[in-house]
Predict the 3D structure of the following.
Amino acid sequence: MFDEMLQRCLPAVNSFITWHVRQRDAATAWAIFYRMRYVRSDIDVYTFTPVLGACSMLPNPERGKQVHTLMIKTGSDSGTVIETALMDMYSKYGLMDESLKVFEEMEYRDVMTWNVMLSNLLRHDLPREALGVLIAMRGKNVEFNEFTLCAVLKTCASLKALKLGKQVHGLVVSMGRDLVVLSTALVDFYSSVGQIDEALKVFNTLNCTKDDMMHNSLISGCLRNQRYEEAFSVMRMMKPNVVALTSALAACSENSDLRIAKQIHCVAIRQDFTSDTQLCNVLLDMYAKCGEILHARLLFDRISRKDVISWTSMIDAYGNHGHGHAAVMLFEEMSENGTMVLPNLVTFLAVLSACGHSMLVEEGRKCFQLGREKYGLEPGPEHYACFIDILGRAGRVDEAWSIYYHMMELGTKPTAGAWIALLNACSLNMDAKRGEFAVKHLLELEPSKASNIVLVSNYYAAIGRWDCVDELRNIMSTKGLFKEAGNSWITVAGSSQGLKSLSS
């Protein structure tokens, strides 16, 4: 019966695949296509377009590459729509070189193609490259639309380019584009560059209906810039929603503003939003960052549907507050009590970090091995760096280097974090020979990072090489490098109004 369905007219089958992709059911869409190519030979560009969308949602990039190869064989690899879908798929796989190659080989690019390339670059945190694409668009006389202008504003926000962003704002006004989407992008931009008064001006002068997205964006921006009165004023204009409160709590976490965050928590309780797992995760993170570890654990215990972020956040909170044993116990509870929530690589990094803070060597070793043996998770360079740091702090410098050699055998390239951990181990254990090796590789990897040079200088001081210390200080002075000073702070004053009328 399935094969009979695939023998129907091609547009009907293409629509069936498209429907599954729109329903985010990429596995079924792929299964239909996979069987379809054995049943019929008239697959066309309208088949490949949704299939590329399905591929971008599936984990294995080889599927997408196979589809691209088949497109070339069937002559379906040309045309603006299909090529745009192809470059978007490669971008979502993280293969930006392949995406750019498709883009550069296109004979004709419409504004949608340019917009997709801009979105791809911004998705991969490449704002300067995105700005280059915008300049190229202008040179090709491609007319900007609303999506292009939103991308420009996101680029300006990433680069903190206030002057350029204001020019875009002027362009929006001159084009008469008074839309909610663009206005929300303007609010985001001004909030990101610390110009909250300009963001409020955009919000207050908007003629069309303001939706929740715009309210949420402005609230988040006000709180991020510690403009609490304005944030509460905007919140009183609308019925509180989960997204607004989540954004507000995230901003309070950044500013370590516990008093305001507690008031927002009260609103969440009154509005019965505390069943939302994402909101509870942000609350948990906020309490932990503000030093309220007992409140964080109480909240964690009350989350009815804990996800991997809930468990990881609580483990990380314990680790950051020096409660290594509690972090390990919680991790064991997560992995042994049949919670159906599997730890991921971030979870393992959190528990390894907790072991490092509390000098729990054997517990750290057990957790490091458990990831691969029980869950099939291959440790990344950051996991190796963390485990090396645990061993180095415990004086087990030979084991630390053994882990480094094992990492190299597996083809895992050490990051600066791994070299720092190895150098610290050598410094603590007066291992001058291997310390020189770590110094060489660290400075080759990040030669102009002041904190690294200070670390190397401290290492040379520990082993009595004062000539090298003086040389490094001269290098820092010549290059104008300064190590950022550590600091700590508390919130002294906040809003006097609070949220007294917010939930009424």
